[in-house]
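Form 7-S
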Amino acid sequence: MRLNWFISGLVGLTIWSAANAEPPHQDENGNFHVPAVDLPPSSLLSHESRAVLELEQQEAAAQSKEPSCLDASKSVAEQALAFRRCQSDRYLASPEYTRLIKLFPVDLTAKTIGGVYAEVFTPKGGVSRENRHRVLINLHGGGFLIGARTFSKTESLPIAAIGRIEVISVDYRQGPENKFPAASDDVEAVYRELLKSYKPTEIGVYGCSAGGLLVAESVARFIHDGLPVPGAIGMLCSGAAYYEDGDSGQAWIGVPAWKPQDNPYLSEVDPTNPLAYPIQSNEIMSKYPPSLLISGTRDFALSSVVNTHSRLVADSVDAELHVWDGLGHGFFYDPRLPESRQAYDVIVRFFDQHLAR
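Output:
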């Protein structure tokens, strides 16, 4: 309580002094009331990072003028496939993708693994000698609605190229046409197939945003079904709780945030189900393998990430947390940011340290 009072008082004094507005205060129900405030770029960001963020805003403004991939005359379910196809076509023709394949040269092949479509990324020149018996599984982000064959490339290309390791990105089933646990079913099918060629300690699994939550869900599913856990996992831009839960979800998205029941894929899930939200079970989380968690201070999923890390540490799991100041959700999707390059190095090093040699 004393710490809350101190933080509230310090922030309140700063804002009041600057704007002569009513200072933030906490009511009898524990709710903080904070007046509107403009938050400039973090003073800890480099000039290079600020320049990239400004460029991102200019690019976003230009993209907003392009014809939308959405068709307002159709229901969400009806337009899902058409939207993903439109998104994928635009992505493959975008400067973003051109930049990625130039910076991170890989060979990309399509493959069906355990009956599930997947993209396999192999670094040009082949994997390193140390990684010939290792593999990474990527579970892309996109809110369980989009991201297949787009965000999958954004998350996989840098890691495959820098780490000189094979990355398999799973094109798992998404909403609204599919419901939980369809994605977990697909990930388990791929994992079971890979276990025929790799030891579990030679397999790593990582993903960002919805993919980060799916990593947590998948490990919970492996434990539930009696499968050995992977050698290491990365829950990036999300954790073992819903990615918009906690203070950060309310602060950066608005109140109320987009709740799980608003997500078509998760709309029918019991919020206490640990196979959907593993944070609900200490027993499950205590069995997690070494875990990497990454976020930014302006990421709406920060609370999910930090809370997951705290729970894992409390359960004596080897867990590593990295948070970059002043950056938002999935910031490392843009390789132009110095912090993105730092994040790639952290991810590569983490799996290199924890996967069996």
